[in-house]
Every structure is written in structure tokens, then in C-alpha cells.
Write a structure and sequence with these properties.
The structure is a single chain. The chain is an alpha+beta fold and 521 residues long. The chain has 4 domains: 2-72, Uridine Diphospho-n-acetylenolpyruvylglucosamine Reductase, domain 2; 79-257, Uridine Diphospho-n-acetylenolpyruvylglucosamine Reductase, domain 3; 259-377, Alpha-Beta Plaits, CATH 3.30.70.2190; 396-480, Alpha-Beta Plaits. It has helices spanning 33-46, 100-109, 120-129, 147-152, 160-163, 234-238, 272-284, 286-289, 299-312, 341-354, 368-395, 413-427, 451-470, 486-508, and strands at 2-3, 26-28, 50-53, 69-72, 79-84, 90-95, 134-135, 170-176, 182-186, 191-192, 198-201, 207-210, 232-233, 247-254, 256-257, 261-269, 291-297, 328-336, 363-365, 402-403, 406-407, 431-436, 441-446. Strands 16, 17, 18, 19, 20, 21, 22 and 23 form an 8-stranded antiparallel β-sheet that branches. The chain has a 5-stranded antiparallel β-sheet with strand order 5-6-14-8-9. A 4-stranded mixed β-sheet has the order 1-2-4-3, with helices on one face. It binds flavin-adenine dinucleotide. Residues 16-17, 51-59, 62-63, 73, 96, 140-142, 145-146, 148-150, 152-153, 155-157, 242-243, 247-248, 478-479, 515, 518 line the site of flavin-adenine dinucleotide. Flavin-adenine dinucleotide binds at residues 16-17, 51-59, 62-63, 73, 96, 140-142, 145-146, 148-150, 152-153, 155-157, 242-243, 247-248, 478-479, 515, 518.
Length: 521
Amino acid sequence: MLRGEALTGWEKYFTDESRRCGWADALAFPRDAEEVCAVVEEAAGRGWPITVSGGRTGIVAGAVPEGGLVISLERMNRVLGMGRTDDGTVTVRCQAGVTLQELQTALGQGSFADSSDWDEESRRILAQLRHEPCFFPPDPTETSASLGGVVACNASGAHSFGYGPTRNYIQGLSVVLADGGLLQLSRGQVVAGEGGSFARTYDDGQSRRLRPPRYRLPQTKNAAGYFSASRLDLIDLLVGSEGTLGIIAEVELRLRRQPPFSSAAMIFLPAEAAALELVGKLRRSRHETGLVAVEYFDCHSLNFLREHRRQLGATSGVPECLPEVADCALYLDLTAAAEELPRTLETVRREALSEGADPALCWSAHENDERERLRLFRHALPEAINQRIAAVRRRYPEVTKLGTDMAVPDDRLADMVRLYRQSLQRAGLCGLTFGHIGDNHLHVNILPENPEEYQRGRKLYLELAREVVAMGGTPAAEHGIGKLKKDFLELLVGARGLSEMRRVKEFFDPDFRLGQGTLLE
Ligand SMILES: Cc1cc2nc3c(=O)[nH]c(=O)nc-3n(C[C@H](O)[C@H](O)[C@H](O)COP(=O)(O)OP(=O)(O)OC[C@H]3O[C@@H](n4cnc5c(N)ncnc54)[C@H](O)[C@@H]3O)c2cc1C
């Protein structure tokens, strides 16, 4: 464990992609769950708060410490074995510090560096995997994220339209609790029945029960607050708890069979209304078309990309052929069996044409390298926005990115799009609206030019959050609450809901030492 002056030079462990900087008294790099238990016990003895550091790709400052001990899990990077559930689903067991990139690469190659240490059953399943490739569906874009962080944030991304969020893929967890105890859970093992509760015995021999939260969460993609559901599985409560209930040391992930064929398309459209209509049609035919992602670029986003291309040329990642006439665009990812592909593509083509898409202007990508080029194009927008904000920050360091992360139910999508467009206009702010329209989850990126616009943008952000919650939506669909969006939690669940969350927190962490400053005060 590093302490005091020995921490100089290790500052990168005290920040994340929010760019907020924290401080700590000590930094530890355990190698396995037992070592995590030992450092947690030591921290408990010293009364230190504990912050878990995964890949530090979070953008709401959850991994940014406010004193105490930082536990980095980056040395817990072994894949421990494979298994099969009762329903035949292949699972993989990993230490929490394995990154998404490492897992995806190994699954893609059907080969794991650690497999020589695996038991026979794991090696047998791995051999089968070479004939029946599998993948881990959650794809929160930034592949340097750790699996522990992905679980702690219930991460999702473009493909959650087809596959749902991380929670759907968690079969088992090993979690170190605030007192240093190790909790090992398999799905279905600890479930609070209707009106039921979870029980726990503490070090002093006292036993307490926890009634799971009763608040109703939005029926949308959501990463805000502790999960609530009838017949709640304890695993589901821990997933998405942002490092405030326990330290995830190991995960067992459910994998899916790799679809035989994947294809991507970019459909340019003449108007916002046409895009919304097309999204409705695509949603209705989703099972027929094997659609896994539907992403949106509004007119300001396309104009921003055109300008970026004019300034940077080919290095911008934006192709020269980006149509000048299009108002907005939808990006699609489809999967299919080879024999179904022509029918699938024809369905999508017919629906796009019926909304005024010009086939001569649309792009499609079937081969791996073509799909990769399209993927890079999709990522060119957030990267261009980051560059713009970085340029403004050189003059005004107090300005940060203002990107919303809200989702609404299906029937409120058009209202949300209208709300964003009209509110930006009224506030006189430049904003780009893009993202996961299939899940009614669009990011508005407000681009302030100076501190005054930044303050106006922050005010607008809060107003939008209120409106979205009033529509039955969530203010934090995938990035979580962290330390930066705590105001939103009360908006979502009210004062009563907040006190239910505090009860959950007290049950797991009576001294409020885990993830201090994250989620709850
Ligand atoms: C360019 C970019 C794009 C992104 N796109 C998406 C996206 O599409 N979808 C999405 O969901 N997210 C997205 N994110 C956010 C981020 O990548 C995810 O939230 C990711 O899951 C965080 O993982 P991490 O390992 O980096 O966690 P960290 O940032 O290290 O930590 C995040 C939180 O989880 C806690 N934590 C980390 N590890 C553990 C553990 N083992 N046990 C308990 N708590 C832990 C931390 O204390 C903190 O509160 C994006 C980020 C970037 C930079």
C-alpha cells in the first residue's frame, strides 16, 4: 500500500474521464479477493473512506476519491474459467480488473492467456467456443473500462437496444463488504420474495433485515440509484450501485452466441419527423430484422461533422461523401443468419424509402473493415465535441462538457426531441442531439463558448432533467449519478425514495465509507 509522499506520481488514480481531481491518503493494488478483504479491513481500522478505481473511464466522478484509501483493481486481471448455466448459457468468470478490451479480444480469438490454470470443465467449454463463438453484449464504447466498473455502473451503450444493459448478463458476483467480509452470490440464490427482505448478521452478532426499495423506477434504460423490482435478486441490487455497497472482486458473465452475420448502415433523411417515423417502424419490425442498434444524428450534429471535415480533412474521420443535403441520419447495426440477410436488408430498405431516404446517399457496410470504418465515423462526433470543449477550456478552464444522459418511454420520444430542440433555441445555446434513439436515449451536448453560456447551459440541463422525469423518464440512463448528478436522484425518486436508498446503504455500509460522496451525501 502506498501512503503519504509515496503517492506523488500516482495522481492518475485520483481522477477519471470527468476530469475532476481528487486526493487520497493511501493507494492499494490487491491481486485477488482475499487481498481486497485485507486492505478493506485495514481501512476500516483506520476509519478511512474507500474509493474503488476500475478503468477510470466513468464521466460522473464516481472513481474520484475525497480522501482515504483508493483500491485500484487493475492488477486483478485474470480470467478464472468458464461454465454453463442450467439453461446451457456459456459463462466466463473474471477478476474485476479485466478490461472489456481484454475480454472481447480473448473471446474473439477463442484463446485466454490464463487458461492453462483452468479446471478441465472450463477448458472443455473453451474448446467448444472455438466452434460456437460467443460474445459479451454490453458495449459501453470505451473498452478500457474494467468489468467491475461496467457492473458497478450497469453500463449499456448502442447495442442495449438489442441486448439490454449489463444487469441482464450477470450470473454471479464476489463482493467484498465494508467490514472486509466476502459475499459470494449466484443468480437466484438470494432473492427477496414478494414483500420479503434480505437478512445479515454483523460483527457484533446483531442480525438485521433489509426490505428492498419500493420506489418505481422508470420503465426505460436507467443507471440512476439502487435497483428496485419485485422479487429482487441481491445481485441486481449490487449491479449499478456505483461502488457504494461493496467492492466487486469477481464477476461471472453470461455470454451470447455470436450472430452469424452482422451488417451496418447509415441512412440519411430529409427531416427530423421522417427519422422519428422510421424509428417507430424499425422498432415494430425489430424481431424480423435482428436490429441491435439504432443511433441518431440531428441536423446540428451533421453540420458540426461537415465543418470538422472542412477543417481537418481526412484525419477528421468524417468521409468526404457525407451528403450535404441530408437533414439528419440514423445509424443501424443488424444481425442475421446468412440466409435471412437479404430479407432483413430489404425490410429496412423499404421502410427507409417510405420515409424519404435517397438510396443513392445511404451507406451500408457488410465486411469487417467497412463496418469498422462506419464505427469510427460514429465515434468521430463525440471526439470532435471533446476537441471543441478542450479548445474552449484552454481559455476558460472552468468550462466542462455538458452532455445529457436522459431517456424517456417509447411514447414520449417525439416530445423529448421537440423539448431538446425548442429549449436550446430559447436559451440561445448551441447543442448537438445524437445517440441511442432506439432506446429513446439521446445525448444533448451543449457547446458553451464562454463561462456565461456554460452557466446558462447548466441551468438548462437541470430544467431538461425535470421535464424528462415528468415524462416518466430518467435523468441518468447509462453513465450513473456519481458525484456530479446527485441533484437528479431526488428528482427521480423523491425524498421518500432517497431515504429508502439510505436504508439500503446503511444495511451494507453502516459507516458510509464506501464510495463516499457518490450517489448519496
Ligand atoms: C468515450 C466514453 C464513452 C462512454 N460511453 C459509454 C456508453 O456508451 N455507455 C455507458 O454505460 N458508459 C459509457 N461511458 C462511461 C464508462 O465507460 C462506463 O461507465 C464504464 O462502465 C466505467 O467502467 P470503469 O472501469 O472505467 O469504472 P470507473 O470509472 O473506474 O468507476 C466507475 C464507478 O464504478 C465504481 N467501481 C469501479 N470498479 C468497481 C468495482 N470493481 N467494484 C465496485 N465499484 C466499482 C467506481 O468506484 C465508480 O463509482 C463512456 C465513457 C467514455 C470515456
